[in-house]
């Protein structure tokens, strides 16, 4: 990416609101007790790995992954003797999504294997296949992996069933868990007071938008907008009015917001409907937004959720999406469409920000801005059974998935050598310094440690200051938002999400008569899942997850 052109391209279009957000993110660092310029224990090492291959030098390769893995072996060498795990074989299950995740882990762990003598075998899964594969292993009692890349929502299905190995104290010290951002601190990663998770990600969805769409005279004339939308009402209005205009970067037809209409994505696609819904249904006075905490009765068919579905139906009717959008899953909207120059807005996990500047597939790195997810002019108060119009709109960032982590299963619990090897491999991936590299380069992960928000390190790596304040600020503001929508760590959560995707797609294809009927079908399916799992226990765990 031509990062030196960013200020010229963006500053003219950057609104006062975005500049203030950058300043606010600096203030937030001070509020967290982190002095400006604070670094982790080895500033020289961090600077060295951030220069591999260098921001603007193209996508990293396996050679780069191995270089970074080798340079970050110091903590491993402090706890493990050379060759200590000779003869140990471990099986690692994780994603191969967009050639990231497991693909990077292979490179990072190759120097670890060479040093320790262990060997790792890999189970690579597509995103849509992840939940079915994990649930099958749990249901049939055939867990065939020693280490698993997994999100906190699955902790109820795994830790709650006694399938995980408890983290040793030496691992906690090696990875510096105190550095995690506040919302990823315990109880996330724990169950019944025991710690099981090494966090490697800080998932939340943020709003990415094209700044050149806001400065283009033709588009501004058609839409009436010169600043980024802040509410879903504005997003929808922009998306309808931009139809028929020309994309200022590519010369192709212009489009507004990119909903992934192929929502069926193994449960992960439901997050993208949640992005719209949380602004409508997450009331500041109510921690619940998916279920009623006293009964587990679904809220997914209340007027706020129905409005979210209706938004998508209305945009489909207005032909506001690119052709064949019904076959676009979330990977397509982010990596093929938005980063490739199609469309002007989307919500996605925060790593779109690092990919925009460090991936060969991105053409928008000089013309992209970020904020928290859009809010809504009105919010449904479930307790009152009525819509309200709060002053300044209602914002409820979607902290979708609580981030990926690395977990060790109880398959190794009876073999101390194998157990230490598994935890050592996991700790290497979750190390403080290697995590900064993963946050800054395409990895499938986004910032999740307090030490990731040192703007000076990112600027020295090749990001310009305005861009990184904007990008990191959107993540930090989402994590710390007082009305953030946090999903529950309850058993079966992805069963709920997966069946919701199925019913949603049916509704969008016309198999149901309205948005309300679609939402009612999802609610009925959710009731069936709750009854199957056990309502009383779900109520108890759901209340606990909400801090009630």
Describe this structure in words.
By secondary structure, this protein is of the alpha/beta class. It has 2 domains: 62-200 and 403-476, 3-Layer(aba) Sandwich (D-Maltodextrin-Binding Protein, domain 2), CATH 3.40.190.10; 206-399 and 487-546, Periplasmic binding protein-like II (D-Maltodextrin-Binding Protein, domain 2, 3-Layer(aba) Sandwich), CATH 3.40.190. The protein is built from 23 helices and 14 strands. A 5-stranded mixed β-sheet has the order 2-1-3-13-6. The longest helix has 19 residues, at 515-533. The N and C termini lie far apart (47 Å).
Structural topology:
Elements: H1 6-10, H2 16-31, H3 43-50, H4 62-71, H5 74-79, E1 89-95, H6 102-116, E2 119-125, H7 127-140, E3 147-151, H8 155-158, H9 169-175, E4 190-191, E5 194-195, E6 197-199, E7 205-210, H10 211-215, H11 217-223, H12 232-241, H13 270-281, H14 303-317, H15 330-338, E8 345-349, H16 352-358, E9 368-371, E10 379-381, E11 386-388, E12 398-399, E13 404-408, H17 416-429, H18 432-440, H19 455-461, H20 465-479, E14 485-486, H21 493-508, H22 515-533, H23 535-545
Helix pairs in contact: 2-20, 3-18, 4-6, 6-17, 13-14, 14-22, 19-20, 21-22
């Amino acid at each position: 990416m031509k990062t030196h052109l960013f200020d010229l391209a963006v500053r003219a279009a950057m609104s006062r609101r975005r500049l203030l957000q950058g300043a606010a993110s600096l203030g937030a660092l001070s509020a967290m007790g982190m002095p400006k310029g604070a670094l982790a224990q080895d500033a020289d090492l961090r600077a060295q790995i951030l220069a591999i291959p260098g921001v603007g030098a193209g996508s990293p390769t396996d050679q780069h992954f191995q270089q970074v893995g080798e340079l970050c072996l110091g903590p491993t060498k402090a706890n493990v003797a050379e060759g200590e795990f000779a003869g140990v074989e471990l099986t690692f299950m994780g994603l191969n999504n967009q050639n990231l995740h497991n693909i990077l882990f292979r490179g990072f762990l190759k120097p670890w294997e060479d040093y320790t003598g262990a060997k790792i075998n890999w189970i690579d899964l597509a995103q849509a296949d992840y939940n079915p594969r994990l649930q099958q292993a749990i249901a049939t009692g055939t867990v065939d992996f020693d280490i698993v890349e997994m999100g906190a929502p699955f902790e109820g299905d795994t830790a709650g069933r006694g399938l995980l190995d408890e983290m040793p104290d030496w691992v906690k010290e090696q990875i510096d868990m105190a550095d995690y951002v506040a919302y990823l601190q315990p109880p996330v990663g724990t169950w019944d007071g025991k710690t099981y998770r090494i966090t490697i990600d800080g998932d939340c969805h943020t709003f990415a938008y094209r700044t050149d769409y806001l400065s283009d005279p033709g588009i501004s004339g058609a839409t009436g907008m010169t600043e980024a939308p802040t509410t879903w009402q504005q997003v929808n209005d922009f998306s309808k009015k931009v139809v028929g205009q020309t994309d200022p970067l590519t010369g192709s037809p212009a489009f507004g917001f990119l909903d992934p209409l192929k929502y069926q994505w193994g449960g992960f696609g439901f997050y993208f409907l949640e992005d719209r819904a949380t602004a409508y249904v997450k009331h500041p006075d109510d921690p619940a937004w998916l279920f009623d905490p006293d009964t587990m009765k679904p809220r997914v068919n209340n007027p706020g959720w129905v409005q979210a579905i209706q938004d998508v139906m209305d945009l489909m009717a207005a032909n506001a999406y690119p052709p064949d959008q019904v076959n676009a899953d979330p990977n397509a909207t982010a990596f093929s469409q938005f980063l490739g120059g199609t469309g002007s807005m989307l919500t996605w996990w925060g790593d779109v920000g690092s990919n925009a500047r460090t991936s060969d597939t991105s053409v928008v790195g000089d013309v992209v801005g970020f904020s928290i997810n859009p809010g809504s002019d009105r919010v449904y108060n479930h307790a009152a059974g009525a819509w309200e119009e709060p002053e300044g709109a209602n914002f409820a960032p979607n902290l979708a998935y609580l981030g990926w982590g690395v977990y060790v299963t109880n398959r190794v619990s009876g073999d101390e050598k194998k157990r230490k090897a598994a935890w050592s491999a996991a700790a290497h991936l979750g190390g403080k310094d290697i995590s900064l590299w993963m946050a800054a380069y395409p990895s499938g992960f986004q910032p999740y440690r307090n030490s990731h928000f040192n703007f000076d390190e990112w600027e020295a790596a090749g990001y310009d200051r305005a861009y990184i304040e904007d990008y990191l600020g959107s993540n930090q503001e989402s994590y710390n938002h007082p009305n953030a929508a946090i999903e529950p760590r309850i058993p079966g959560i992805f069963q709920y999400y997966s069946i919701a995707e199925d019913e949603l797609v049916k509704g969008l294809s016309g198999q149901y008569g309205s948005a309300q009927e679609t939402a009612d079908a999802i609610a009925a399916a959710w009731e069936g899942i709750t009854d199957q799992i056990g309502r009383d226990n779900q109520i108890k765990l759901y209340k606990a997850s909400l801090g009630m």
